# Entry
Amino acid sequence: MREPDLDPAVEEIAKKVMDAIDNLNTATIRLSNIDIDELFDGPTEVTEEFISMVAGMETASPALKVYAERVETGECRWAEIESMADPIPPEVAEMKSSPLFAWNWTLEPQQPPTPPAGVAWPPPQNTIRRPRSGETVVGPSDWPEDFEDYPDDRPWR
# Structure
């Protein structure tokens, strides 16, 4: 319901205050439904989201922040942090050795791709190759001229 004699600026401020109160009430309800014992019952699983959040903190090590930038650009993945980071961030060693965290990423050695059975990889070809004698080369000189197809002076449309 809108008050007809209320200044629009005051009404806008009142709406912002009421929205903030509603947000506070919602947060209070959500907080009251959280079981604190369940939060601290087991170890925290180290996921990509979690380690990204740790890397975004002000207290994160410079090595972790640099690796986070590399992950952001797509150069590497969080699961490869032990093999791709140089130096390895101290947070990694802390999380791996702490019983409060579950580090589920294993260091897997990189293996070269194997070709499918029965398919031979094509040999690398030289990017610039001259035709050998006896090869037929098709080029602009072999294409028909436009005037042969249209002998009269009709314009193109």
